[in-house]
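Sample pair:
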Amino acid sequence: MATGSAAEPRPVIDAALARRLVDAQFPQWAGLPLQRVDPAGSDHVIYRLGEDLSVRLPRHAGAIGQAVKESEWLPRLAPHLPLAIPVPVRVGEPALGYPWPWAVSRWLDGEVATAESLGGSSGVAVQLAEFLRALQAFPSRDVPVEDTRESLTGRPLADRDRATRAAIAETDGVFDAAAMTELWEAALSAPGWDRPPVWFHGDFHTGNLLTLAGRVSAVIDFGELGIGDPARDLTIAFTLMSASSRAAFRATLGVDAATWTRGRGWALATGLNAYTAYAAVSPRVAEQTTRQINEALIG
């Protein structure tokens, strides 16, 4: 779950602004109804445009590169993946006081995944492991070096050290600070990824999975897409899965001990980041991230 700085100015995004942007830049859709989608996560305000399209407007500066990145890479990845992913249609330009690029994509039907509905399903766990295997298998050798450096290289886990230790101290009493510190230090000291870099989703958690008829139907929000260490995508094992389904996921994906430990570290760090930023104002986020942190501690 990516977040922007709480101190940075954020544009006011409402239906009137979305309507004006669509009508001005894509008049072919001016007659289509526009309906806000909630909850939409921390990075974007999302509107459904007619029956077949969605409009995604970044909320903060940390998400402003996502529209262009998804437009470039998702059409290349889609044919190789076993689950539906967003189909970019247009990238909108900054205008009318709104400062950033924004996106129009094909609408994907489905409900947001929850641990309550899918967490105990080993079939879903295997399904998600197979998706990650396919994503990791997509060739990365042809990506230009400058593109990798600028838009596809994620921050290493160690970059989160200061913020994570501060969050551990802040949440002492809510969670087990000693256990969190032990896990965090183990994740930082675990051997790094020593194989060729692979593709990762980068924000692989329940909020970015859609479901139909008890199965995962689509994976959305590829704004953190990149190439490198796949450990960060193991977060899904702790946001969605139970201990038994997590074991099926790990076995199918073939995760070694060091990568699993780094993945637990990613789950801890991102869970703490979201908890300290949003738990006080969002009971939904508080519940989700509490589960994520506690499951990461279990392993």
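The radius of gyration is 19 Å.
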